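hi! just following up on the protien thing from before. the input was this:
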Amino acid sequence: MTPVPLSGKTQEPSLTRWDPDGVRQMRLLPRIDRPREKLAARGPTALSDAELLAVLLGSGTRKLGILDLAKRVFETFGGRLATVTPLALQEIPGLGQAKACQIVAAMELARRELARPRVVIEHAADALPYLESIRGQRQEHFVCLSLSGANEVLASRTVTVGLLDQNQVHPREVFADPLSDRAAAILVAHNHPSGTLTASPEDIALTSRLARAGELLGIRVLDHLIVTKDGYLSLKAAGHL
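and the predicted 3d structure came back as:
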């Protein structure tokens, strides 16, 4: 038989006892304030340095919650995290080889990414390397390039994929990611599976809608390209932007 407490009430788990991997501390936080959920909902810029590191580490220890572990890393190596070694990181109690290597690998990946020269879009043809994969597609693909204030390419994404030569595109879908990228401008493009390099009335109307939406959002529409296997058309050069 299970012994019954003298009070006659069911005994609650102790709130001072840590669950494995420090998950109790995380469960006490509102879901929206947990680093991983916060990043997914609001983007990486909404997180503090310690919260970003907590997402990277994934879990804490039996005695140290994940946020406390991340803060201890910054207290120990603040300003030197980009050059720290795995062995040095492992001197922090609760930080084993696996987590130490995750941190060092992330720092090196960021260093390599920042060192890569970014492509600058000065002319419509400069964007063509980002559009090679859609030029021969049988369905219409609509692509958006996020650009910095210096017209550097920050990201390239396929926004929608249509059927044959029909594609429904809404400005909110086009600008959603550039807003997250803190883009200053965008360049959009789509392919014509038919092979014709003539802008349809729908293409011209969409270009106008995107330009108006961009003005409200503070994001310039640099150009709208139509591409086929054999060439491309700039709607800006054609006078539609």
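Strands lie at 141-147, 153-161, 185-191, 220-227, 232-234.
Helices lie at 23-28, 35-42, 49-57, 66-77, 86-89, 97-115, 171-180, 201-217.
cheers
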